[in-house]
From TrEMBL:
Enzyme class: hydrolase
Assembly mode: Homodimer.
Catalyzed reactions per annotation: N-formyl-L-kynurenine + H2O = L-kynurenine + formate + H(+)
Species, as recorded: Paramagnetospirillum marisnigri
Recorded GO MF terms: arylformamidase activity; metal ion binding
Designated name of the protein: Kynurenine formamidase
SUPFAM superfamilies linked to this entry: Putative cyclase (SSF102198)
Alphabetized InterPro entries for the sequence: KFase/CYL, KFase_sf
Keyword field: Hydrolase, Metal-binding, Tryptophan catabolism, Zinc
Function (record text): Catalyzes the hydrolysis of N-formyl-L-kynurenine to L-kynurenine, the second step in the kynurenine pathway of tryptophan degradation.
One Pfam match: Cyclase
Single Gene Ontology BP annotation: L-tryptophan catabolic process to kynurenine
EC number: 3.5.1.9
Functional pathway: Amino-acid degradation; L-tryptophan degradation via kynurenine pathway; L-kynurenine from L-tryptophan: step 2/2
Amino acid sequence: MFDLTLAFGSGVPPWPGEPAPRITRLSDMDVGDACTVTRMDFVVHYGTHLDAPVHFIQGGTDVASLPLDVLMGPCHVARVADSVDTIGPDAFEIPAGCTRLLVRTRNSDLWNTPAHPFHRDFVAFTPEGAQWLVERGIRLVGIDYLSVQGFHDAAPTTHRILLGAGVIAVEGLDMRGVEAGEYHLTCLPLKIIGADGAPCRVVLTQET
């Protein structure tokens, strides 16, 4: 079993311009309170999270309405060579019938130190790569840094292609130690009505 989820509190960098999570205690047994109660304030696109279509598509599906049958089920993991800077069409083989795809790149090595400065040159999909996924029938795609789209892109075209086609984008995966192959995916976001994204617990188990 592989837990691909980055831990809140581990120092994972926020997206530039967005605040880091704040975790505070409203009450604490260590100071004599009857119980411990924690408050969290965070951007829904922090750490390991997914993007719902409404993130970039006006009137698109929100997190609470995402289909569970897409978030759980057989999943192919593809491994991209460390020499690859952007993921375009035909960057790897997609098995026939695959609808859930996670992509491991050299980005995963960045999670050896979770509290690193935000890395702007992470590996991500080009718009052409996004269109390729749509044409291949992918319904969920995940990647091992904080966006499926490159930081330096002039427009959010990759996001709009994927989300406009109803593809769920899962971002911020820690895929160290995960080899290419077939798995079972469980990706469960917080059920937040109206939200454009949400933190997820993402787990892979070996297909038997």
